[in-house]
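Researcher: Good morning. I'm working through a list of sequences from a screen, and I'd like to move beyond sequence-only analysis. For each chain I'm collecting a predicted structure so we can compare shapes side by side. This is the next one on the list. No need for commentary yet; just the structure.
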Amino acid sequence: MTETATAPADSEIDAGTVRAAVEAFCDRNWDPDLTVEQWWRLLAGAGYSHPMLPESAGGLGYGMDQSALVSLVLAERGVLGPPGGLGRMLAAPTIAFHGTPTQIDRYVPEILDGRVGWCQLFSEPNAGSDLASLQCRAERDGDEWVIAGQKVWTSGGQVSDMGMLLARTDPDQPKHAGISWFAFDMDQPGVEVRPLTEMTGRALFNEVFIDEARVADSALIGGLNNGWRVGNTTLMVERASLGSSGRKPPELIPGPKGGVLNARVGDFVDRSAGAAMSGVPPLGIDMWWWLVDMARKNGSITSKVLRDDLMRLYGLIEINRLSIQRAKGGRARSARERSEQGAGDWGSAAAPNIAKLTMSELNRAFRDIGMRVVGPDGMLMGDSDGQSGGHIAEVALFSPAPSIYGGTDQVQRNIIGERVLGLPREPGPARDTPFSQLPKN
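Model: Good morning. C-alpha cells for this chain:
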C-alpha cells in the first residue's frame, strides 16, 4: 500500500504547491479506521515520512521550510504524523548520507514506514560529554564483529529493535579515530536493557549492557574507523532536530514493541495521546496557544508582566523556527545540493549547537511561564482535576533534561567557542595520542 508523490524533488517548489499536495494526499487517503501500520505505509510511500531525505532514500528532497510545511498541514488536518523516535530523526538521515545503496535499501524503508524502531547507543558511563572516550569495543570475527561494553542514557532502548552503535574498532588509533558506526540488532543474546526511571515517573532513558553480542560487517555504516565522522552527522542532525519547535502532528512509537501497529489510527489523533507515548512534553506554538487560552480562562492574562513574558516566549519560538530554516537552507537548497555539500552543512558550524541551546531555553521558559499561568495547580501531576491536567507539572519536572541530553549546554558552548570563535582548546594530551595510551576515567 504505497502512493507515489507527484511533486518533483530537486527544484524550488512554492508553499502553495506543497500545501495543495499534502491536502490532496490527506483527502485521498486519511481514514481513521486504517491501522497505524497502513497509514504509516501511505505516508512513507508518498515521501511524507521524511520529506528532507533525497528521493533515493524515500524522501522528496525538500528544504527545511517545505518539510515544516508538510508537518504543519498534517497537524492542521488532524491526522497522525509519521513514526516517532530516533530512527526517523537520526538513523535515516545518517544512513541516507553515509550508507551504501544496499544499506539504504536495507534499513531506511523500514524506518520510514514504522516497521522498526531505533535507539542511539552513543553515551557511556565514562563517555558522555567526552563521547570520543567511549570504551565499548568491537572485535572482528570473520564476517562479524563481537561487541562488548555498556551504554547509558539510551532513549527508547526498551522499545527499540535496532540501535545506532558507536564502538571502538582500533584502540591503537587516536581516540577520535578507531571508532565505527554500526546498525546494531537489539534483539539478540548478550543485550540487556534496563530502564532508568526519571523524576517524571517515566522511563524515557535506559542503560544497555552488551556482552559478546554480534553485528555483521555489512552493518558497518560509513567505513571502518570512520565512526566519528558518521556519528557527528548523527549528532548535528540531533541537535538541530531537538531545537526545532514548529507545529507537528502527534507521533507514536514505531516497531512491534510500540504496540500500536495494528491499532486503529483514529484512536491516536488526540495530541495528548502522542505526547503520552513519547514522554517528552510537546513544546512549541501549540503549547504557547494553550498557555494563552489558560491565562484567559483563569484571568491571569490581565497581568501586564505575564503578557510581556508570553510575547517574549512567542518571539523565542519564532526566532528558533526561522533560524533553523535559514541554517538548513530553506527552499533554495535541493536534495542534490545538500548531498554534495554534506549532511552536516547547516549553513553555520554553530547552527545545530545554537538550536540545542535555544531548545533548553524554551523548556525553561515554558516551565516558568506555565507555572505562573496555572499557579498552585502546577504542583499537580498526572491526570489530575486541576486546570492544567498535570501538563505543567510534567513540563517542570522534565525541564532540566534538555540541558543535559544530546550534549550538555556547556558542551555546546565549548564547541561554539572553539570551532566558531577560535578560542583555545582545553588543555589535554596531544590529539594524535593512541587511545590505548590515554588515562581512563
